[in-house]
Amino acid sequence: MEKADGCISSPSRKRKLPQEGNDMLNFSLDELTDDLLERVLSWLPTSTYFNLGSVCKRWKSVAASESFKLACSRIPSREPWFFMVDPNLNQSVVFDSAERSWKKLDHPPVLLNNCNSIPVAAAGGLVCFRNISGDYFVCNPVTGSCRELPPVNPDSHDRPLLAIAMNAYSNYHGSYKLVLVSGDLSKLSYQVYNSSADCWEEEIMLRRKNDECTGFDLNGDEDDAVYFLSKAGNVVATNMQRSPSKQYSSVFTCKDGEEIVYFLSSSGTVVACNLTQKHFSEYPRLLPVFFEYSIDVVECKGEMLVVMLSEFFESASLRVWRFDEKTRTWNHIAGMPPAMSHEFYGKKVDVNCVGAGDQIFICLSSAELCSYVLCDIVANEWVELPKCCMNGEAVDFMSAFSFEPRIEASV
Predict the structure, then answer these.
(1) Is 363 helix (H, G, I), strand (E, B) or coil?
(2) How far is it, in rounded angstroms, from Cα 23 to Cα 17?
(3) What is the DSSP pairing of strand 204-208 with strand 279-282?
(4) Angular region, 189: left φ>0, alpha ψ -120 to 50, beta rest
(5) Which of 45, 174, 293, 408 has the smallest C-beta neighbourhood within 10 Å, fewest atoms?
(6) Direct distance between the N- and C-terminal alpha carbons of the chain, in angstroms, rounded to an integer
(7) Using one digit for the tens of pLDDT, what is the confidence trace for 222-243?
């Protein structure tokens, strides 16, 4: 990260400005109308929102107004914050990608009363939590506003939950969808919560795409275990479960008018559920099951990518892949420098990732280490981030979720 060089120009080199025609030098923000002041303040980084109220009474009033939120909603985009996952903390921790710093946020009261809730999805300026009872809560981490969603249809609890995805259509109007994918690869279904109607829509079955060619036996015996290497490199059966925070990990994309949810199957393949066409398919494997690797799916600028940590010839390789629908092949688009990735060799490292624009935030964890890396897939730049310290001790996070820090995001 580049830093200012700290040089200060010599006074002798400064040019004396003429006195006439420089009324702007004496200009004060107090002279702005409320409308203009709101528009000016809306362009400040979201992190300044917490301090607006302490500047003066007028700014405090502006920060609390609905018209200021509307002004903020007109800002095209915000640099992402990454919501870190640690179920043992009673407060939220985020990484601010714009300021490259860690921030601590207070937990909303609703989540404090549901201490077993963990984040499972995020979109726009919102993060979705789920508790052990299967209840869902949607929260704006910046403002602390939170909303409990209506209960899911009890009949859906009979089928295993595979993926939870979220998509936001309007931050200011609180328009978003939460998608639950359930069943198994012989019989998948999905259910959608629509915030505009404040209800769960009818469950819809997905058919397997006809032109797909896979080795999955639709009539096979489900009791016959298929063994493979887990994300941590351990040999396990198909009924394995990932860490709670990433157990339902999935991404939501909208391309050419088609909404698609991608998630990892229990055997490590990428499954694509086309909600528009009502069908699903499995993508070819990147590596055979007997290779040691850790894998995760991310979304960057509307497309699904795969991040994979694998081991070859006594070294580790961390790469980003894109799937070509026309050729049905995986193409490598970015890779961590070998000098950085070699550190993870032989340590059974698990990768948990989240995308935001051209960036991928990667959590690498094992019994021996915990590291966070930010990757720019366009420039192929990889930066290891500083540790987050609380009370003088480093905190280890297992994963993260990406969201835009927007005070106007409505639950």
Answers:
(1) strand
(2) 12
(3) parallel
(4) beta
(5) 45
(6) 34
(7) 333 333 334 444 443 333 334 5
